[in-house]
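Q: My collaborator sent me two sequences in one message, no labels, and asked for predicted structures for both. Can we handle them in order? The first one she listed is below.
A: Yes, handling them in the order given. First sequence, followed by its structure tokens:
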Amino acid sequence: MHTELCDRFGIDYPIFVFTPSEKVAAAVSRAGGMGVLGCVRFNQPDDLEGVLQWMDANTDGKPYGVDVVMPAKIPTEGTAVDIDKLVPQAHRDFVAKTLADLGVPPLSDDTARNEGTLGWLHSIARSHVEVALRHPIKLIANALGSPPKDVIDQVHEAGVPIAALAGSAKHARRHVDNGVDIVVAQGHEAGGHTGEIGSMVLWPEIVDAVSDRAAVLAAGGIGTGRQVAAALALGAQGVWMGSAFLTSAEYDLGVRLPSGRSVIQEAMLAATSADTVRRRIYTGKPARLLKSRWTDAWDAEGAPEPLPMPLQNILVSEAHQRMSESSDPTTVAMPVGQIVGRMNEIRPVAEIIAELVAGFEAATRKLDTIRDS
């Protein structure tokens, strides 16, 4: 499992893993892949600075990247208080009633309230880029497509390549025209923000559209070495994963239950590949989430329409915090892909990576026997 991207980034395997957990990101890099830390949860530059200092000290000199979110539209700037005024009271009332109906307890008095993730704003995302460039990062990815041109120029001047997610060949061409170096072809099966086209169709379409100008990573529904082999067979130079590492032993976000697992992990372990939905209720843009009593409430008759990004995130941010810190897995609101049906145990990151590599090697050996027969 070796492609040009391995040589470009100095990694053993072309496995790029997006994660909000610095412990998972560092473990991926130590295991030979590229850990990519999601920055959107950091409202203050100093918070991100501290975590990246930790990454520098805990990656054994191996390369890592960061993922920022730069939405293109409405509203893009302003303080939390300014934007907060744009959230309708009727939506707030619905969220409060839903949490009460689901029996989700309030946060304790000594818990800091999450009043909205400002990382969805351009100004905060730009600060994430500035902080990241003070560290030895090897990649900056933008979860919502091409960053603004001045940001692309800033990152390139620092000698760092840029990746951007795309859900169609049209989007991929636009990203490359804008100066993006790596296109993440993210199929419909993926967790989080995802488009309408399935991976098996999308990956070769984007490869054919841009691979002469940019590298392509395949994303969406990847959780085994066989699927990595399929992605490379379809022309990708590597894979971009996320969901499969939510049940890694290093994943440390969310309150731990007596089982030793977080409420998020308990929800994932119980799910099948049919237990996801694609809705706008998480951020305001279509995103694939774990199906839960929370998503059911938003699907019920009388529920309000989700607000545009970033207002929806501000509306539900504390609700997400309350559900993640409760003990009820049936209410969890968490992005995850359809591969969740294969996420059936808690394992160390190194073991997951090793299994991906072994599965890839087994799949390619099988193909060799078919070719030689």
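Q: And the one she listed second?
A: Here it is, processed independently of the first:
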Amino acid sequence: MFGRWLGNKGATGAARGSALAGLAVPDSAGVLSCRVLDPVNEAVRQAEFVVTDATGRKVVAGETDPYGNVLATVPAGEYRLAVTAEGFTPFHGSASVTEGENAGLGDVTLQMSAPPQLPDPGEWEIEPMHSQIGFTARHIGMARVHGRFNTFAGAVRIADRMENSAMHVIIDAASIDTNVQMRDDHLRSGDFLDVGRYPTLEFYSDRFVHRGGTRWGVSGALTLHGVSRTVTLDTHYLGLGNGLEGETRAACRATTELHREDFTLTWQTMLARGIAAVGSSISIDMDIQIVPKD
């Protein structure tokens, strides 16, 4: 794979002395480039792009730079470029890349997309069969441990104005599952969750802030290990759909990061060279579907 960004020292072939000076281009390769703009000609930063070859195989992928540029060095050939960004309709284009040349698509303007329909006002509940609350923690400074909570329930009150909505989620602490029995027993013990004293984790929010497009910030109090802290869920609303039996459901993904010391989860042991056995930060990743409450 020949994916590179500006900043490499040295240049070869047609790239020398041009706007691509400073980009090292192998003899058998060329450059695919464009600039991604919004409808008012502002650069779209961190738009995701994927370059695929004639067989549909991904060759290189990445994000636009702070000026909206896509710049990739690829072997000579025929390519498709797909560009996607939050709140915009995707762009698809084609380019023929020749050796030592820049296949520039110029300015690519993304059009605004219509936001998905919000859930109807009323009482909704989390549908656990199609929802997941997972987490990732660092182990001994390099590996990552993935886990989830298998038992949880939640209610969502959708207001006439979405920003006035509220939600309450209760998680069974003992349902923690990392697929290793010995580790799960340790996590349930007094060293960590202490499920005998604190059998549940709870999250309550009545602050929904629209961040543009399909992004929302859902802020509230998370109570964990007997301690409450304010947490904000970075939420991507996915829209409405219908289940197999025709029932209406809404879906979202949400992420946040917790620091376990904030919740007095301070157990730690140090390995050789001062490496912590368990990292202090825990990434939370949730896939949630809600359905109207009966």
